[in-house]
């Protein structure tokens, strides 16, 4: 079979040097120091297995516990990880990956192509975007223990981007194939393939990982331990950071006012760099399966009642951007051809009357509003704003506060909600992070960040499925433009603002923000001085 080498496929990038296997773009700094413990904050960790749940909660420990075939540098370029090299067929219908022959799992068992095939099947069946992300893959062939050949149903423009640690973690088949994977105790005490191995997980409190001495990259990792402390309260988080109890906060948990204050502290590095693969968007999500939100007029009325400019300028200090559609404005597929809803309370009241919800006493109807607990200003504070704001158009809102991240996930993924403030990541390609929220066949009860709202539009399905197969950028852009126009008219969500992610870490911490994945990358080259 004629092949195109990985160097030819990654056109325009520099050749991969021998040093790549020792790590990614490890910027020139003081001589790396071996040893020490890195303490990272997280807003919540419901599971340690990113194969069954997406997002930063499982992704933060998961990227340390599990290796993947590839990792990516700060320019989105794929680099060898568990795969030392790979080839793509000339027709784009086969990718052959050659594994590190000496790589072993944390229990000493060899990592084989059978584990890669099992992991692909597991992610496709269980991840909220598994069917969309890997729908182009027909099967994984295993001609020998260190060769995994992905046979494609069709060419896929996003395929290599799907092979990052939090998207395709390589799981040990002999551990995770025992019964239904969601019930497997290894989700909370995993045997992995990454640079750090599991020590202890106290749910709601902390995760402890330690160096895996038989990691396949020589002399890595550098740190002795990584401790992930779970802190829900932003004030506690800031105090822990300032006192030195925590070294690194990345992406979640801080108010924007905290960011502005911490930027002035010379003890810390504060940066927005390193989150380019995520593309977070915040939105109001409706349960379309029941009244009153099964009526588009009601959703449109609420859209007219939300002053997004006020949210950006007053609640978020101008650090975010107004959002009117499903794609982050920095996404190359983001369109300006959207159905817009001008802030107009009288228009909102008129639409509610047309929808059959006139005022009855002091309200038209009563609903319960939840909010994801991980972005305090983008989600929780906006939910606080919505309660009195929607009262102005006759909607009585009762706020429900979840005791922890896991409880909120359970409510939303099992459709036990009216509406909620939520956030998701676009990820490097809409096939990965966007389609999952809209495809009619991706309504999977109990799976978070799938189609939890119950939206179904055959036109949107066709546009998304066609874009996932299309290899020409201009044609893909037009398909996604039409998709965005359709969903902003149907309005299964009301998009509010972008989420601006920051990393704040002590200056003694090095090599933690050098890819497009923030902390959701292997931290085998991280060290402290």
Structure in words:
By secondary structure, the chain is of the alpha+beta class. The chain has 15 helices and 21 strands.
- Number of helical segments? 15
How many extended strands? Answer: 21
Strand order of the largest sheet: 9-10-11-2-12-19-13
Main β-sheet description: 7 strands, mixed
Instruction: Give the radius of gyration.
Output: 23 Å
Separation of the first and last Cα atoms? 50 Å
Q: Could you say which structural class the secondary elements and strand pairing correspond to?
A: alpha+beta
Question: What does the oligomeric state look like here?
Answer: single chain
Principal-axis shape equals: globular
Secondary structure: helix percent: 25-40%
Beta-strand content estimate: 15-25%
- Average pLDDT score: 93
Unreliable spans are 1-28
Question: Descriptors for this entry?
Answer:
alpha+beta; 26% helix; 529 residues; 20% strand; five-stranded antiparallel sheet; seven-stranded mixed sheet; 15 helices; globular
Write the SSE topology.
Layout: E1 3-5, H1 6-9, E2 37-42, H2 56-65, E3 70-72, E4 78-80, E5 83-89, E6 94-99, H3 113-126, H4 130-133, E7 137-144, E8 147-152, H5 173-176, E9 196-202, E10 206-211, E11 225-230, H6 234-243, E12 248-250, H7 256-262, E13 268-271, E14 280-286, H8 296-304, H9 308-315, H10 345-354, E15 365-371, H11 376-391, E16 395-399, H12 405-413, E17 419-425, H13 430-433, H14 458-469, H15 473-490, E18 493-498, E19 503-506, E20 509-510, E21 527-528
Helix pairs in contact: 8-10, 14-15
């Amino acid at each position: 079979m004629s092949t195109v080498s990985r160097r030819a496929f990654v056109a325009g990038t520099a050749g991969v040097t021998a040093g790549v296997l020792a790590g990614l773009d490890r910027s020139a700094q003081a001589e790396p120091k071996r040893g020490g413990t890195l303490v990272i904050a997280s807003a919540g960790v419901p599971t340690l297995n990113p194969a069954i749940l997406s997002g930063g909660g499982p992704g933060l420990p998961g990227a340390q516990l599990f290796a993947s075939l590839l990792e990516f540098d700060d320019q989105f370029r794929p680099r060898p990880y568990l795969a030392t090299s790979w080839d793509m067929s000339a027709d784009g219908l086969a990718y052959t990956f050659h594994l590190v022959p000496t790589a072993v799992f944390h229990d000493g068992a060899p990592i084989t192509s059978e584990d890669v095939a099992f992991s692909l099947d597991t992610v496709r069946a269980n991840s909220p975007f598994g069917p969309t992300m890997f729908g182009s893959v027909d099967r994984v062939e295993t001609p020998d223990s260190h060769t995994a050949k992905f046979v494609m149903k069709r060419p896929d423009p996003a395929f290599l981007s799907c092979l990052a640690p939090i998207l395709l973690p390589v799981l040990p088949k002999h551990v995770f194939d025992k019964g239904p994977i969601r019930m497997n105790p290894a989700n909370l005490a995993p045997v992995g393939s990454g640079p750090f191995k599991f020590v202890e997980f106290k749910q709601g409190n902390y995760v402890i990982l330690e160096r895996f001495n038989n990691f396949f990259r020589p002399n890595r990792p550098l740190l002795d331990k990584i401790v992930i402390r779970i802190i829900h309260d932003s004030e506690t988080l800031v105090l822990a950071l300032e006192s030195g109890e925590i070294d690194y906060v990345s992406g979640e948990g801080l108010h924007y006012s905290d960011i502005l204050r911490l930027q002035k502290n010379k003890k810390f590095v504060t940066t927005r760099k390193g989150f380019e693969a995520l593309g977070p968007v915040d939105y109001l999500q409706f349960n379309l399966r029941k009244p009153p939100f099964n009526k588009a007029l009601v959703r449109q009325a609420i859209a007219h009642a939300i002053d997004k400019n006020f949210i950006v300028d007053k609640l978020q200090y101008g650090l975010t951007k107004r959002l009117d559609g499903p794609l982050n404005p920095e996404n190359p597929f983001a369109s300006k051809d959207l159905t817009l809803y001008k802030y107009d309370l009288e228009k909102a009241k008129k639409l509610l009357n047309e929808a059959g919800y006139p005022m009855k006493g002091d309200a038209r109807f009563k609903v319960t509003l939840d909010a994801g607990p991980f972005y305090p200003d983008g989600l929780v504070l906006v939910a606080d704003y919505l309660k009195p704001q929607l009262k102005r158009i006759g909607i009585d809102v009762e706020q429900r506060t979840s005791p922890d991240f896991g409880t909120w996930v359970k409510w939303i993924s099992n459709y036990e909600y009216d509406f909620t403030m939520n956030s998701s990541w676009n990820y490097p390609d809409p096939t990965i992070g966007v389609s999952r929220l809209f495809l009619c066949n991706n309504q999977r009860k109990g799976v978070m960040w799938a189609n939890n709202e119950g939206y179904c539009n055959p036109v949107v399905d066709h546009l998304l499925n066609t874009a996932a197969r299309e290899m020409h950028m201009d044609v893909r852009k037009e398909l996604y433009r039409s998709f965005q126009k359709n969903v902003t008219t149907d309005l299964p969500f009301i998009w509010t603002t972008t989420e601006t992610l920051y990393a704040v870490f002590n200056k003694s911490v090095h090599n933690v923000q050098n890819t497009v994945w923030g902390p959701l990358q292997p931290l085998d080259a991280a060290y402290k001085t």
